[in-house]
Amino acid sequence: MPRTTPYTASTWPIATCLHGIPPVGPDGVALHDAAPEVWDDMFAQVEDVGFSLVELADSHIRPADLEPSRRDELLAIARSHGIEIPSVHLQRQSVIMPGHEEQNLAYAHRTIDAAAEWGMKVFSTGLHQPFSEAQRKALWFWTAEGPKDPDDPEMWKLAVSRIRELGKHAADVGLPLSLELYEDTYLGTADSAVRFVQDVGLDNVGLNPDVANLIRLHRPVEDWRELYAKTLPYANYWHVKNYTRDEAADGSWATSVPSSMESGLINYRQVFRDAIALGFDGIILAEHYGGDSLGMCAVNQTYIRTLLPKD
To answer: Which end of the chain, N or C, is more open, meaning fewer C-beta atoms within 10 Å of its C-beta?
Structure first.
Protein backbone atom coordinates (compact mmCIF):
# COMPACT_ATOMS: atom_id res chain seq x y z
CA MET A 1 0.00 0.00 0.00
CA PRO A 2 1.46 3.40 -0.99
CA ARG A 3 2.44 5.68 1.85
CA THR A 4 0.13 8.64 2.43
CA THR A 5 3.18 10.84 3.04
CA PRO A 6 5.95 10.02 0.56
CA TYR A 7 9.50 9.77 1.81
CA THR A 8 11.93 12.54 0.93
CA ALA A 9 15.72 12.83 0.93
CA SER A 10 15.83 13.55 4.65
CA THR A 11 13.14 11.09 5.78
CA TRP A 12 13.82 8.02 3.65
CA PRO A 13 14.89 5.12 5.92
CA ILE A 14 18.47 4.15 5.12
CA ALA A 15 20.11 1.51 7.29
CA THR A 16 23.65 0.23 7.48
CA CYS A 17 24.88 -3.33 7.46
CA LEU A 18 27.20 -4.55 10.21
CA HIS A 19 29.90 -6.03 7.97
CA GLY A 20 32.38 -3.66 9.60
CA ILE A 21 31.76 -5.22 13.03
CA PRO A 22 33.53 -8.56 13.61
CA PRO A 23 31.03 -11.35 14.34
CA VAL A 24 33.53 -12.81 16.81
CA GLY A 25 35.57 -10.68 19.18
CA PRO A 26 39.32 -10.96 19.87
CA ASP A 27 38.41 -12.91 23.01
CA GLY A 28 36.72 -15.57 20.88
CA VAL A 29 33.22 -14.64 22.07
CA ALA A 30 30.59 -14.36 19.36
CA LEU A 31 28.91 -10.97 19.03
CA HIS A 32 25.60 -12.74 19.67
CA ASP A 33 26.83 -13.67 23.17
CA ALA A 34 28.93 -10.58 23.82
CA ALA A 35 28.87 -8.44 26.94
CA PRO A 36 26.76 -5.25 26.96
CA GLU A 37 29.84 -3.06 26.60
CA VAL A 38 30.67 -4.79 23.29
CA TRP A 39 27.17 -4.07 21.97
CA ASP A 40 27.48 -0.51 23.25
CA ASP A 41 30.72 -0.03 21.34
CA MET A 42 29.11 -1.45 18.19
CA PHE A 43 26.18 0.95 18.28
CA ALA A 44 28.48 3.84 19.22
CA GLN A 45 30.44 3.23 16.01
CA VAL A 46 27.24 3.15 13.99
CA GLU A 47 26.10 6.40 15.61
CA ASP A 48 29.48 8.03 15.01
CA VAL A 49 29.23 7.55 11.23
CA GLY A 50 25.74 9.02 11.10
CA PHE A 51 23.30 6.10 10.94
CA SER A 52 20.12 5.78 12.98
CA LEU A 53 19.03 2.45 11.45
CA VAL A 54 20.77 -0.93 11.41
CA GLU A 55 19.95 -4.17 9.62
CA LEU A 56 20.56 -7.11 11.92
CA ALA A 57 22.01 -10.01 9.92
CA ASP A 58 21.99 -13.32 11.72
CA SER A 59 25.69 -13.70 10.92
CA HIS A 60 26.14 -11.25 13.81
CA ILE A 61 23.15 -11.61 16.11
CA ARG A 62 20.27 -14.09 15.80
CA PRO A 63 17.02 -12.51 17.01
CA ALA A 64 15.30 -15.90 17.21
CA ASP A 65 17.96 -17.23 19.61
CA LEU A 66 18.31 -14.25 21.94
CA GLU A 67 16.74 -14.54 25.39
CA PRO A 68 14.06 -11.89 26.10
CA SER A 69 16.21 -10.19 28.71
CA ARG A 70 19.15 -9.94 26.30
CA ARG A 71 16.85 -8.74 23.52
CA ASP A 72 15.60 -5.96 25.75
CA GLU A 73 19.19 -5.14 26.71
CA LEU A 74 20.28 -4.96 23.06
CA LEU A 75 17.36 -2.74 22.06
CA ALA A 76 17.91 -0.45 25.04
CA ILE A 77 21.59 -0.03 24.17
CA ALA A 78 20.70 0.69 20.55
CA ARG A 79 18.11 3.30 21.58
CA SER A 80 20.65 4.97 23.86
CA HIS A 81 22.58 5.75 20.67
CA GLY A 82 19.48 6.84 18.77
CA ILE A 83 19.44 3.65 16.69
CA GLU A 84 16.52 1.45 15.65
CA ILE A 85 16.59 -2.02 14.05
CA PRO A 86 13.98 -2.12 11.26
CA SER A 87 15.00 -5.36 9.54
CA VAL A 88 16.51 -8.77 10.00
CA HIS A 89 18.36 -10.62 7.26
CA LEU A 90 18.75 -14.40 7.33
CA GLN A 91 21.72 -15.31 5.19
CA ARG A 92 23.00 -18.69 4.07
CA GLN A 93 20.07 -20.49 5.72
CA SER A 94 18.37 -21.86 2.60
CA VAL A 95 15.13 -23.75 3.13
CA ILE A 96 16.27 -26.27 0.49
CA MET A 97 19.83 -26.71 1.75
CA PRO A 98 20.59 -30.46 1.64
CA GLY A 99 20.46 -31.98 5.09
CA HIS A 100 19.28 -28.75 6.72
CA GLU A 101 15.94 -28.03 5.03
CA GLU A 102 13.61 -28.61 7.96
CA GLN A 103 16.00 -27.07 10.48
CA ASN A 104 16.38 -23.91 8.39
CA LEU A 105 12.64 -23.67 7.73
CA ALA A 106 11.88 -23.86 11.47
CA TYR A 107 14.60 -21.29 12.17
CA ALA A 108 13.09 -18.90 9.61
CA HIS A 109 9.66 -19.26 11.23
CA ARG A 110 11.15 -18.48 14.64
CA THR A 111 12.95 -15.47 13.21
CA ILE A 112 9.75 -14.09 11.68
CA ASP A 113 8.11 -14.27 15.10
CA ALA A 114 11.13 -12.62 16.69
CA ALA A 115 11.15 -9.85 14.07
CA ALA A 116 7.51 -9.10 14.84
CA GLU A 117 8.15 -9.14 18.59
CA TRP A 118 11.08 -6.75 18.13
CA GLY A 119 8.91 -4.35 16.14
CA MET A 120 10.85 -4.78 12.91
CA LYS A 121 9.45 -3.76 9.52
CA VAL A 122 11.05 -6.32 7.15
CA PHE A 123 12.02 -9.99 7.13
CA SER A 124 14.72 -10.52 4.50
CA THR A 125 16.22 -13.81 3.38
CA GLY A 126 17.29 -15.75 0.30
CA LEU A 127 18.26 -19.17 -0.99
CA HIS A 128 22.04 -18.91 -0.69
CA GLN A 129 23.94 -21.46 1.37
CA PRO A 130 27.08 -21.32 3.54
CA PHE A 131 30.38 -20.64 1.82
CA SER A 132 32.24 -23.48 0.17
CA GLU A 133 35.75 -24.22 1.39
CA ALA A 134 37.13 -22.43 -1.68
CA GLN A 135 35.05 -19.34 -0.90
CA ARG A 136 36.26 -19.29 2.69
CA LYS A 137 39.87 -19.31 1.49
CA ALA A 138 39.47 -16.69 -1.24
CA LEU A 139 40.37 -13.03 -0.77
CA TRP A 140 36.92 -12.16 -2.17
CA PHE A 141 34.40 -14.96 -1.72
CA TRP A 142 32.59 -14.20 -4.98
CA THR A 143 35.71 -15.16 -6.97
CA ALA A 144 35.35 -18.83 -5.98
CA GLU A 145 32.63 -21.32 -6.76
CA GLY A 146 29.89 -21.84 -4.19
CA PRO A 147 26.84 -24.10 -3.81
CA LYS A 148 24.28 -24.19 -6.62
CA ASP A 149 20.54 -24.80 -6.61
CA PRO A 150 19.79 -27.87 -8.75
CA ASP A 151 18.08 -27.69 -12.13
CA ASP A 152 15.20 -29.76 -10.77
CA PRO A 153 11.51 -28.79 -11.19
CA GLU A 154 10.54 -30.66 -8.03
CA MET A 155 13.14 -28.83 -5.96
CA TRP A 156 11.95 -25.54 -7.45
CA LYS A 157 8.39 -26.39 -6.37
CA LEU A 158 9.61 -27.28 -2.90
CA ALA A 159 11.48 -23.97 -2.60
CA VAL A 160 8.42 -22.04 -3.78
CA SER A 161 6.19 -23.94 -1.35
CA ARG A 162 8.44 -23.27 1.63
CA ILE A 163 8.90 -19.59 0.84
CA ARG A 164 5.13 -19.30 0.39
CA GLU A 165 4.72 -20.88 3.83
CA LEU A 166 7.10 -18.31 5.30
CA GLY A 167 5.39 -15.53 3.37
CA LYS A 168 2.00 -16.42 4.81
CA HIS A 169 3.49 -16.45 8.29
CA ALA A 170 5.11 -13.07 7.70
CA ALA A 171 1.82 -11.67 6.43
CA ASP A 172 0.04 -12.94 9.53
CA VAL A 173 2.35 -10.84 11.72
CA GLY A 174 2.31 -7.82 9.41
CA LEU A 175 5.71 -8.17 7.75
CA PRO A 176 6.85 -8.13 4.13
CA LEU A 177 9.21 -10.92 3.11
CA SER A 178 12.02 -9.91 0.77
CA LEU A 179 14.13 -12.35 -1.26
CA GLU A 180 17.70 -11.38 -2.10
CA LEU A 181 19.16 -11.86 -5.57
CA TYR A 182 22.10 -14.23 -5.34
CA GLU A 183 24.11 -16.17 -7.91
CA ASP A 184 23.50 -19.83 -8.67
CA THR A 185 20.23 -19.89 -6.71
CA TYR A 186 16.68 -19.78 -8.04
CA LEU A 187 17.05 -16.04 -7.39
CA GLY A 188 20.27 -15.84 -9.42
CA THR A 189 19.00 -14.30 -12.66
CA ALA A 190 16.40 -11.63 -13.30
CA ASP A 191 14.00 -13.95 -15.12
CA SER A 192 14.33 -16.73 -12.58
CA ALA A 193 13.87 -14.38 -9.60
CA VAL A 194 10.76 -12.81 -11.12
CA ARG A 195 9.31 -16.20 -11.99
CA PHE A 196 10.02 -17.42 -8.46
CA VAL A 197 8.20 -14.51 -6.82
CA GLN A 198 5.31 -14.90 -9.24
CA ASP A 199 5.09 -18.60 -8.39
CA VAL A 200 5.03 -17.79 -4.66
CA GLY A 201 2.13 -15.50 -5.48
CA LEU A 202 1.78 -13.49 -2.26
CA ASP A 203 1.41 -9.71 -2.15
CA ASN A 204 3.83 -9.37 0.78
CA VAL A 205 6.60 -11.41 -0.86
CA GLY A 206 8.90 -9.41 -3.12
CA LEU A 207 12.50 -9.02 -4.15
CA ASN A 208 15.58 -7.46 -2.63
CA PRO A 209 17.17 -6.48 -5.98
CA ASP A 210 20.79 -6.61 -4.85
CA VAL A 211 22.07 -6.53 -8.41
CA ALA A 212 25.62 -5.88 -7.21
CA ASN A 213 25.73 -9.49 -5.94
CA LEU A 214 25.64 -10.53 -9.60
CA ILE A 215 27.74 -7.92 -11.38
CA ARG A 216 30.73 -8.65 -9.12
CA LEU A 217 31.11 -12.22 -10.42
CA HIS A 218 34.30 -13.06 -12.32
CA ARG A 219 32.38 -14.53 -15.25
CA PRO A 220 29.88 -13.30 -17.85
CA VAL A 221 26.88 -11.64 -16.18
CA GLU A 222 23.61 -10.03 -17.17
CA ASP A 223 23.64 -6.33 -17.89
CA TRP A 224 22.82 -4.41 -14.71
CA ARG A 225 20.27 -2.31 -16.60
CA GLU A 226 18.30 -5.40 -17.61
CA LEU A 227 18.58 -6.89 -14.12
CA TYR A 228 17.06 -3.79 -12.57
CA ALA A 229 14.45 -3.28 -15.29
CA LYS A 230 13.05 -6.74 -14.60
CA THR A 231 13.37 -6.89 -10.80
CA LEU A 232 12.62 -3.36 -9.57
CA PRO A 233 8.85 -3.75 -10.11
CA TYR A 234 8.93 -6.47 -7.44
CA ALA A 235 11.24 -4.71 -4.97
CA ASN A 236 10.08 -4.32 -1.36
CA TYR A 237 13.51 -3.93 0.35
CA TRP A 238 16.86 -3.03 -1.17
CA HIS A 239 20.50 -3.82 -0.46
CA VAL A 240 22.72 -1.36 -2.35
CA LYS A 241 26.47 -1.43 -3.00
CA ASN A 242 28.70 -1.19 -6.03
CA TYR A 243 31.78 -2.67 -7.68
CA THR A 244 34.15 -1.61 -10.41
CA ARG A 245 34.18 -4.23 -13.14
CA ASP A 246 36.33 -4.97 -16.15
CA GLU A 247 35.91 -7.83 -18.60
CA ALA A 248 37.11 -9.14 -21.93
CA ALA A 249 34.81 -8.58 -24.89
CA ASP A 250 34.88 -12.32 -25.63
CA GLY A 251 33.89 -13.20 -22.05
CA SER A 252 37.17 -15.02 -21.37
CA TRP A 253 37.90 -13.08 -18.17
CA ALA A 254 36.32 -10.62 -15.77
CA THR A 255 37.39 -8.94 -12.56
CA SER A 256 35.76 -6.77 -9.91
CA VAL A 257 36.53 -5.03 -6.63
CA PRO A 258 34.29 -3.12 -4.18
CA SER A 259 33.81 0.58 -4.82
CA SER A 260 31.73 3.47 -3.62
CA MET A 261 28.22 3.51 -5.02
CA GLU A 262 29.00 6.62 -7.04
CA SER A 263 32.12 5.30 -8.75
CA GLY A 264 31.20 1.70 -9.58
CA LEU A 265 29.68 0.04 -12.63
CA ILE A 266 26.03 0.54 -11.67
CA ASN A 267 24.70 4.04 -12.33
CA TYR A 268 22.61 4.46 -9.19
CA ARG A 269 21.52 7.96 -10.18
CA GLN A 270 19.50 6.39 -12.99
CA VAL A 271 18.47 3.32 -10.99
CA PHE A 272 17.00 5.40 -8.16
CA ARG A 273 15.04 7.49 -10.66
CA ASP A 274 13.65 4.28 -12.15
CA ALA A 275 12.86 2.74 -8.75
CA ILE A 276 11.01 5.81 -7.49
CA ALA A 277 9.08 6.11 -10.75
CA LEU A 278 7.94 2.51 -10.22
CA GLY A 279 6.73 3.37 -6.72
CA PHE A 280 9.48 1.84 -4.61
CA ASP A 281 9.25 3.17 -1.05
CA GLY A 282 11.02 0.50 0.98
CA ILE A 283 13.94 0.58 3.37
CA ILE A 284 17.36 0.97 1.72
CA LEU A 285 20.30 -0.93 3.21
CA ALA A 286 23.82 0.36 2.56
CA GLU A 287 26.26 -2.53 2.29
CA HIS A 288 29.99 -2.79 1.62
CA TYR A 289 32.69 -5.46 1.77
CA GLY A 290 36.31 -4.83 2.68
CA GLY A 291 38.16 -1.86 4.15
CA ASP A 292 36.22 0.47 6.42
CA SER A 293 32.78 -0.94 5.70
CA LEU A 294 30.95 1.36 8.12
CA GLY A 295 32.78 4.40 6.78
CA MET A 296 31.98 3.50 3.18
CA CYS A 297 28.33 2.89 4.06
CA ALA A 298 28.26 6.39 5.57
CA VAL A 299 29.75 7.86 2.39
CA ASN A 300 27.14 5.99 0.39
CA GLN A 301 24.30 7.19 2.61
CA THR A 302 25.27 10.79 1.88
CA TYR A 303 25.34 10.01 -1.84
CA ILE A 304 21.99 8.17 -1.75
CA ARG A 305 20.23 11.12 -0.15
CA THR A 306 21.29 13.32 -3.10
CA LEU A 307 19.37 10.92 -5.36
CA LEU A 308 16.10 10.94 -3.45
CA PRO A 309 13.12 13.35 -3.81
CA LYS A 310 13.84 16.79 -2.40
CA ASP A 311 12.21 17.82 0.87
So the answer is: N
